[in-house]
């Protein structure tokens, strides 16, 4: 028998906590860079580096999620093929 996997959804509270945590971290980093006792080009470099790090992290998370979802689709297709073969197979049929 085929069992369809339960699609897991994150709760609104978890989503809100993730957004709030990201916002606090970005704000704290921006304030830290702004208040840093350094030249403007050093602060600019740090700000660009932080933005690059954030976009890289989002891209990496998306790639990992996409690869996982593709693996689930392939395994479902393979499972459906096996189930079809088993359903069509008659062990009492003469060869």
From TrEMBL:
Residues 14-66 form the YiaAB two helix domain. The chain crosses the membrane at residues 12-34, 40-61. Keywords: Membrane, Transmembrane, Transmembrane helix. It comes from the Bacteria. It holds the Pfam family YiaAB. This is YiaAB two helix domain-containing protein. The lineage of its organism: Bacteria, Bacillati, Actinomycetota, Actinomycetes, Kitasatosporales.
């Amino acid at each position: 028998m085929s069992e369809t996997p339960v699609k897991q959804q994150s709760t609104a509270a978890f989503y809100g906590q993730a957004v709030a945590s990201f916002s606090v971290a970005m704000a704290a980093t921006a304030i830290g860079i702004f208040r840093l006792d350094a030249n403007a080009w050093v602060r600019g470099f740090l700000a660009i580096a932080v933005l690059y790090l954030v976009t890289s992290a989002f891209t990496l998370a998306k790639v990992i999620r996409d690869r996982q979802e593709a693996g689930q689709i392939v395994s479902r297709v393979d499972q459906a093929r096996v189930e079809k073969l088993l359903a069509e197979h008659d062990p009492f049929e003469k060869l």
